[in-house]
Automatic annotation (TrEMBL), chains A, B:
Aminoacyl-transfer RNA synthetases class-II family profile domain sequence ranges: 36-386
One of the Pfam families matching this protein, by short name: HGTP_anticodon
NCBIfam families tied to this protein: hisS (TIGR00442)
Residue sites binding L-histidine per the record: D105, L106, T107, R132, Q148, D152, R301, Y305, Y306
Catalytic activity: tRNA(His) + L-histidine + ATP = L-histidyl-tRNA(His) + AMP + diphosphate + H(+)
The keyword Protein biosynthesis belongs to this UniProt entry's keyword annotation: yes
Protein name (Swiss-Prot/TrEMBL): histidine--tRNA ligase
Listed InterPro entries: aa-tRNA-synth_II, aa-tRNA-synth_II/BPL/LPL, Anticodon-bd, Anticodon-bd_dom_sf, His-tRNA-ligase, HisRS-like_core, HisRS/HisZ, HisRS_anticodon
Entry EC no(s): 6.1.1.21
GO molecular function: ATP binding; histidine-tRNA ligase activity; identical protein binding; RNA binding
GO CC entries: cytosol; mitochondrion
Length: 489, 489
C-alpha cells in the first residue's frame, strides 16, 4: 500500500542530501533543528500563549502554587523510575563532574523536590519541557522535546477527594479549550493487579503483562493476546480471562458489579480499588462531570510509579480531523488508528519515599496535560478560520506624512511608551506614508498617529483608524487618553 | 584572612559527606540538584513571575513578537561562535544520531532561526534558560542554568534607530523594576578595534587584547596591563596608550573630542564608530535617557559576534547590598569587587550570514536582560519587607462548621470553580473549623464560605472576612457576585 509513498520518501531524502551539498559538491552546514524538535514561530507562540493561559488560569482557580526545577537531574535521580522507557532518557556527555540526564517528565523531579525539601503537602503546577529519545511523529504532535503541564496534590488526605479534583480539572480544561467531545477513562492499578492475580498471571509477570494491556488503544485484542501468549509466555486460558475483563466499560454500576464478581472479589487489592472507584464516581457526580468519565478496565498506563487510580483523557471528535491528515502520510498510517491521549495521570503513593533516606511516604496524585497535541489541533483550527492571528498587541504606529520628521516621531513614541501605550515606529529616517500604512494593515495595528508640519504647528496629531480610514485631529494633551479609549475597550 | 572560613568550609564538606553515608556507612542516594542549578520554590516563582511580567510588558509595548527554539542545537550550530568560552558548552552524550549541545545563549539560535527561515526582518523577544559549564557563584546569582530575556531587532534599517530603542528598553525595565540607580555603559567594537590599531596592537592580537580589556570591571588597570604585556606579549608602550584611552568616559562630547583626536582620527573604523555614538546619543536625548548612559571606552564585552555598538547596564546602588552579603563568604570575597551587570547587548551584523548558505547578511541589534541577579535582589527585598509574598491567588475557602458536610462543600466549590472563582476546600471529610480558618490565615486567603445545617436550610452561606472576622449571611444566588465584588477590586 505504501509503495508510492515510500518512493516519494526516498526522493525527498535524496533531495535533502543534495541540499546539503554545495554547488561544488562539498558538504555544507546543515541548517536544521535537532531530530524531533522544532522552533515555534510568532503565530504558533500566540496560540501557545492562549492555551497556556487557559490551563494556568484553571490551575490557579484550584489554588495551585507553582515551582520550577532544572532541565537536567543527576542521572541516578531518574534511574529505576520509568521501567522499559528508561532507554529513551537523554544523557549528557561526561565532561568531568556529575553524570546528568535531561528530565523525562515533571513527576520524578517533583518527587525529588518534595523529598529534598521534606515537604509533606503541597498543591503545585509545573509547566515545562521534557525530553524523550522516542520515535518522533511530528504530524501527530509527538516530539522529542515537548511541554508537559502538570498539576499534582501531595499529602495524606481522605480517599479520592484530591483524585476527583484532578479529573474535574481535566474536564474544565478540555471544555474551555473547546477541542470537541472527549472521554476520560479511569481505572486503578490495584484493580489491574488483582485482575492479573485472579486470572492466574504469575506475580513476576504483572508489570510486563500490564505493558501489553497498555497497547490495547493501538492494537487489536487478538494482537495483544498473541503478545501475551507468544512473547510473554502467558497461558492461553489466563489471557482469555484477562480478555473478558479488559473489554468491560461502565460507571459506578460496573464497579458495584465487579465487587460481586466471584473471581474479582477474591482479590483484596481489586476490592480496595473498586471501592475507591465507587467513591470517586460519587464525588464526580457532585462535580457534574460523570457524563465524560468512563471506568475502563483496559486502561493500564505505562509508567511504573502508579499505585492507585489512573486516568487518561482522549478526544473523540478532533481525532477524526488529524486521522484524515495522517492518511496522506503513509509512514504514519498505522498510528492513525490510535486516538491520541491529551491528558493522563494517576496516584503514585510510593515515589517520594524512593527519594527519602528514611523511606517516608508522601501520597501524591496528579495529572499531566499533553499540550503538543492540543497545539496541533488549535493550529489547524486557526488556519481554517478566516480570522487572522495577531502576533503583537501594538495599539498604534507613529508615522509621518513628510520628510525630516524622525526626531519628532521618536519624541512622540517615547511619550507613548512612557504612558504604557504599545507603539511602533519605522526605523527609517524618511519612510513613505503608504509603506507605514501598509505595515499597519499587515500587522493588524488599529491606529496611526500621523505627524506633519501642520500638525506640529497646531499642537495636534492626526489620528487615523486603519480599518475605516477615518482621520481626526487630536490635541497632544488628549492623545494618550484617546488611544486608550479607542483600543482598551 | 580566610583561614577560619576555610576551616568551616572543610567541616561543612565533611558533614555533607557524612550525610551521604547511611548509619552503616554504606553510600546512599545523593538528594540534590546538579551543580550550579537550583529549584525555584513557590515564593521564588511568585517573584519570578512578577519580574517576567514587567519585562514582557515592556517588550510587548515595543511591538515585539516572541519565538521559541529547542533547548539543544546541533553541536555544529554553536561551533565557532563563542571564542574562548566554547569550552563552557554542555554537550549531550552520543547515543546514536546527531551530536547535540545545550544552547549557550539565545542569540545564536535566533540567528540560526532567521537563516533557516530566510527571515530578513523581525522584532522578537525570547525568554528561556541557557546553559554554561561555568564556575557557579550562586550567592551572586551566577548559575550554570539561568534565564535570559532577549529582545532583538533584525533588519536593514537606518543607523542607530533600533540601537537606541534597545537602550530605551533597558532604561524602562530597570526603572520599572525599581532596583536602585544604574548606569548603561556604551562603546563600539569599531572604536575598540580602531583604538587597538592606532595604539600599535598587531591585527591578530585584537581579539585576545579585547578579552583582556573586558576584565577591567573585575581587575585593576595594573593587572590588566600586566596580562597584556607579560601573557599576551604586547609592548609596554602600546599597553600604556591603550591605558590612556580606556580610562575615558563621557557623553556625546567625548565622541566629538575623539573624532578630533590626532591618533584616533587616523582610523576609519574608529571614526565610523564615533560618528554612530554621536548619532546614538542624539536619539537617546529624544528618549530622555541620557542621564543614565555613559560612553565608556573600557567596555569590551566578551562575545566574538559583536560588530558595532555594545552596551552593558550595571547597578550602582543595589550592588552595595550584595557586596555586604558576600563579605561573609570568604570564597567570594574577591568577586564582590565587581558590580554585576544586569543587562548587555550590542550589534551583530555578521552572525546570521554565518548560517546562510549564500552568506546573506541580516543586520541585528539586541539586548539581553540578566534576570538571575535581578531575582536575587528582588528576593532580598521581599525578605526584608514586612509584606508577605502570596504564592496563590485563592479568593475563598469553602469550609464547614459541622461534620458530614463534605458533599455540600464539594457541590458548592464546583459551582464556584465553574463561575471562575479561585477556591479551595480541605481534602478531609470532617476538618475542624479552626484548622480551616488557620489555613486561610497562613495562605492569605481573604474570604471563607462557611456551610452549616442552618445555612443549608436557609439557602445561604456564611461569608467570613478573614482579616476582620466579620461574618454575613449571603444567599446562594448572590454568592458569586458578592465574592467577585469583594475580591476583584
Amino acid at each position: 500500500v505504501c509503495r508510492v509513498g515510500g518512493g516519494l520518501l526516498e526522493v525527498a531524502k535524496l533531495l535533502a542530501l543534495k541540499a546539503q551539498l554545495g554547488d561544488d559538491g562539498k558538504t555544507q552546514f546543515v541548517l536544521k533543528t535537532p531530530k524531533g524538535t522544532r522552533d515555534y514561530n510568532p503565530k504558533q507562540m500566540a496560540i501557545r500563549e492562549k492555551v497556556f493561559n487557559t490551563i494556568i488560569r484553571c490551575f490557579k482557580r484550584h489554588g495551585a502554587e507553582t515551582i520550577d526545577t532544572p532541565v537536567f537531574e543527576l542521572k541516578e535521580t531518574l534511574t529505576g523510575k520509568y521501567g522499559e522507557d528508561s532507554k529513551l532518557i537523554y544523557d549528557l556527555k561526561d565532561q568531568g563532574g556529575e553524570l546528568l540526564s535531561l528530565r523525562y517528565d515533571l513527576t520524578v523531579p517533583f518527587a525529588r523536590y518534595l523529598a529534598m525539601n521534606k515537604i509533606t503537602n503541597i498543591k503545585r503546577y509545573h509547566i515545562a519541557k521534557v525530553y524523550r529519545r522516542d520515535n518522533p511523529a511530528m504530524t501527530r504532535g509527538r516530539y522529542r522535546e515537548f511541554y508537559q503541564c502538570d498539576f499534582d496534590i501531595a499529602g495524606q488526605y481522605d480517599a479520592m477527594i484530591p483524585d476527583a479534583e484532578c479529573l474535574k480539572i481535566v474536564h474544565e480544561i478540555l471544555n474551555e479549550l473547546d477541542l470537541g467531545d472527549f472521554r476520560i477513562k479511569v481505572n486503578d492499578r490495584r484493580i489491574l493487579d488483582g485482575m492479573f492475580a485472579v486470572c492466574g498471571v504469575p506475580d513476576d509477570k504483572f508489570r510486563t503483562i500490564c505493558s501489553t494491556v497498555d497497547k490495547l488503544d493501538k492494537m487489536s485484542w487478538e494482537d495483544v493476546k498473541k503478545e501475551m501468549v507468544n512473547e510473554k509466555g502467558l497461558s492461553e486460558e489466563a489471557a482469555d480471562q484477562i480478555g473478558e475483563y479488559v473489554s468491560m466499560q461502565g460507571g459506578m454500576d460496573l464497579a458495584e458489579r465487579l465487587l460481586q464478581d466471584h473471581k474479582m472479589s477474591q482479590s483484596k487489592q481489586a476490592c480496595a480499588g473498586l471501592s475507591d472507584i465507587k467513591l470517586l464516581f460519587k464525588y464526580l457526580q457532585l462535580f457534574h462531570v460523570t457524563d465524560k468519565v468512563v471506568f475502563d478496565l483496559s486502561l493500564a498506563r505505562g509508567l511504573d510509579y502508579y499505585t492507585g487510580v489512573i486516568y487518561e483523557a482522549v478526544l473523540t471528535q478532533a481525532s477524526a480531523v488529524s486521522a484524515a491528515n495522517e492518511a496522506q502520510n503513509c509512514a504514519n498510517a498505522e498510528e492513525s488508528v490510535s486516538v491520541g491521549s491529551v491528558a493522563g495521570g494517576g496516584r503514585y503513593d510510593g515515589l517520594v519515599g524512593m527519594f527519602d533516606p528514611k523511606g517516608r511516604r508522601v501520597p501524591c496524585v496528579g495529572v499531566s496535560i499533553g499540550i503538543e497535541r492540543i497545539f496541533s489541533i488549535m493550529e489547524q483550527k486557526a488556519e481554517a478560520s478566516p480570522e487572522k492571528v495577531r502576533t503583537t498587541e501594538v495599539q498604534i504606529m507613529v508615522a509621518s506624512a513628510q520628510k525630516n520628521l524622525l526626531e519628532e516621531r521618536l519624541q512622540l513614541i517615547s511619550e507613548l511608551w512612557n504612558a504604557g501605550i504599545k507603539a511602533e515606529v519605522m526605523y527609517k529616517k524618511n519612510p513613505k506614508l503608504l509603506s507605514q500604512l501598509q505595515y499597519c494593515e499587515e500587522a493588524g495595528i488599529p491606529l496611526v498617529a500621523i505627524l506633519g508640519e501642520q500638525e506640529l504647528k497646531d499642537g495636534v496629531v492626526k489620528l487615523r483608524v486603519v480599518a475605516t480610514r477615518e482621520e481626526v485631529d487630536i490635541s497632544r494633551a488628549d492623545l494618550i487618553s484617546e488611544i486608550k479609549r479607542r483600543t482598551e475597550a
